[in-house]
Design goal:
The complex is a heterodimer. Chain A is mainly α. Helices cover about 80% and strands about 0% of the residues of chain A. The chains are: A mainly alpha, B alpha/beta. The interface of A and B includes residues 141 and 230 of A. Bound molecules: adenosine-5'-diphosphate and magnesium ion.
């Protein structure tokens, strides 16, 4: 299927298609990814905190039934494949955005798919905080809220950054996938302009752009996480 | 004053409840330096956690300054905990915060504004000798320095009680004693009550006035340090005082010979050549069969087994030694 991409004609044609679309495609992908991640964090971070603090033996145990419900809900949302989730939430998307087609519309299913994932990542980051430090804060009379704000979150910043980078790159992948069902951005270019029209060179360029974006996010995330970590640095 | 009476704590285990504390009763007066010593798993940590309300006892009461800690909840419990600070074996500093921020943590909890907290934080770091490390992160400090920061943090809100749970156990002996000295200085300066949890005799010897020996969750023995260390009565206390095991003397070869157990209960070090004087003055030939003495301050504590060659002189030796007020001597059989 790729034999025709090696002709000069194929690349000239690809250039015609990409010149007006590629930059805006990259921009759309970036902004959908960042916006969805931000919104997923807004919901997922407090939820992840609750998953840790609400456990039996946590700093503020919640009723077991509530914890079971939250865990079941998160597992349910995480087990639905993204494309099916997009279709399932179409009514909600239409309600919020007014349409199910286009860049803005994909933010709704993206956030719904990503916040449970973010909650789990936050849960795992916060679980790494040593019980001794939490006990220390408790022994000083810190309230559960102050323990979260003053100990659990600051102590797990490097781990949170690493994990949220994973969330960001995963959401970027979902963004591209949404191109199949009317989403915009690089995914739309790769699928609608490339794959469906047999313009494989177009698809290839869009995919390479996606790979570069993932690499870039990962690079920034890794750097940032280690720059923030005060545990190893000398002479900080 | 801390009044613990008939305190028990059970933890749920694989097969039913596992007792960690059994009917513990202790009274710790204000301004005391109180040691709680016991083997690992004896329930020491559980006991201090009950004192600051991190753990709720299964039975019994723990009354601090007239207030039953196990009845406190929520806000009142948190307010109480600010009066009772704790330092730990693992220091538990915030690793992503610098030393000053660590010391400011309890100050901010207590409601001080940022400027006031920083000012007081610097004073506290100065008290523990680490003013120059204010902006350094804990990972760059040695264990002893980290514990000093933890101490500065613990005393930041001027607590009435300082609980030290194995605070020196992760440190080498020299650093450990400098930390104990610091705790002692702070105790004397602010006249706070200090409770030292440890499994090491030397920690208690260094600074404690009273000690309780915890064994299997129960108090085996309790009293003044000097008294317990020189004459341990319980098995648990003997195991701690004589970690190498009890002195088992060989059966006497000579039927005439006798063993005398000499207990030094705070003999001043200058009158130590007591045995030599006895040998000289009474002309009693004695050899030292076993000895386990230690100096606390300038006084000698512990015990010694003398072997007197001529049994007829044993009574004379016992009489000579007992004339000294801080010495107790008695004839013993082979097992001591
Ligand atoms: N949270 C807990 N759950 C179950 N058992 C515990 C818990 N904390 C302590 N224990 C048990 O209680 C006993 C005393 O523990 P601890 O007070 O930590 O002893 P120590 O500090 O003297 O070493 C041990 O047998 C320990 O296993
Ligand atoms: Mg312990």
């Amino acid at each position: 299927m790729f034999e025709n991409i090696f002709t000069a004609e194929a690349w000239r044609e690809a250039w015609r298609i990409l010149r007006p679309t590629l930059l805006s495609g990259i921009w759309e992908t970036l902004y959908v990814t960042l916006l969805s991640t931000a919104l997923a964090i807004v919901i997922g971070l407090p939820l992840g905190v609750l998953l840790v603090t609400g456990r039996p033996g946590g700093v503020r145990p919640l009723p077991r039934a509530l914890m079971r419900f939250l865990n079941a809900l998160i597992n349910l949302l995480r087990s639905i494949p993204f494309l099916i989730l997009m279709i399932v939430v179409f009514p909600l998307t239409r309600l919020i955005v007014g349409t199910v087609i286009g860049t803005a519309a994909t933010v709704v299913p993206l956030v719904i798919a990503a916040f449970p994932f973010v909650a789990r990542l936050v849960e795992s980051s916060l679980s790494e905080v040593s019980p001794g430090q939490i006990e220390m804060a408790q022994s000083m009379g810190a309230s559960p809220f102050r323990i979260v704000i003053g100990v659990m979150l600051p102590e797990s910043v490097p781990s949170l950054i690493s994990n949220l980078t994973i969330a960001l790159t995963t959401i970027l992948g979902y963004t591209a996938m949404s191109g199949v069902l009317g989403g915009g951005g690089l995914g739309k270019i790769a699928i609608s302009y490339g794959y469906y029209r047999y313009k494989y060179a177009v698809m290839l360029v869009a995919v390479v752009c996606l790979i570069l974006l993932v690499e870039l996010f990962q690079l920034i995330g890794t750097r940032l996480a280690s720059a923030c970590d005060k545990r190893q640095k000398k002479n900080g | 004053m801390i009044e613990i009476s008939h305190l028990s704590k059970n933890f749920p285990g694989e097969e039913g409840e596992v007792p960690a504390l059994r009917d513990v009763s202790l009274t710790i007066p204000d301004g005391d330096v109180y040691g709680i010593i016991g083997m690992s798993g004896a329930g020491k940590s559980t006991l201090v956690r009950c004192i600051n309300g991190l753990e709720r006892p299964t039975a019994g009461t723990n009354v601090v300054d007239g207030c039953d800690v196990s009845l406190l909840r929520g806000r009142a419990l948190r307010a109480y905990r600010r009066q009772v600070s704790m330092i730990f074996q693992g220091f538990h500093l915030l690793m992503q915060k610098n030393c000053l921020q660590n010391v400011c943590f309890p100050l901010r909890l207590a409601g001080l504004d940022r400027r006031a907290a920083i000012e007081r934080g610097m004073e506290l770091l100065d008290t523990v000798g680490l003013a120059d490390k204010a902006h350094v992160y804990p990972a760059q400090l040695s264990g002893g320095q980290q514990q000093r920061v933890a101490i500065a943090r613990a005393i930041a809100t001027e607590p009435k009680i300082l609980l030290c749970d194995e605070a020196t156990s992760a440190l080498d002996p020299t650093t450990a004693s400098s930390i104990l000295r610091l705790i002692r200085e702070i105790q004397e300066k602010h006249n706070i009550t200090v409770i030292i949890i440890t499994h090491r005799m030397s920690d208690v010897e260094h600074i404690c006035r009273h000690v309780a020996i915890l064994d299997g969750g129960a108090v085996a023995e309790e009293g003044e340090v000097a008294e317990i260390f020189s004459r341990p009565r319980s098995d648990a206390a003997r195991r701690l005082v004589f970690p190498q095991g009890e002195v088992v003397l060989p059966p006497l070869a000579d039927t005439d010979a006798r063993y005398i157990r000499v207990v030094f209960n705070g003999v001043s070090a200058t009158s130590a050549p007591l045995i030599a004087r006895m040998v000289k003055e009474r002309d009693i030939v004695a050899s030292i069969a076993a000895a386990d003495t230690r100096s606390i301050g300038d006084r000698v504590y512990g015990s010694m087994i003398l072997c007197v060659g001529d049994g007829r002189l044993a009574a004379s030796a016992v009489e000579y030694l007992n004339a000294h007020p801080e010495v107790h001597a008695e004839e013993v059989t082979a097992r001591v």
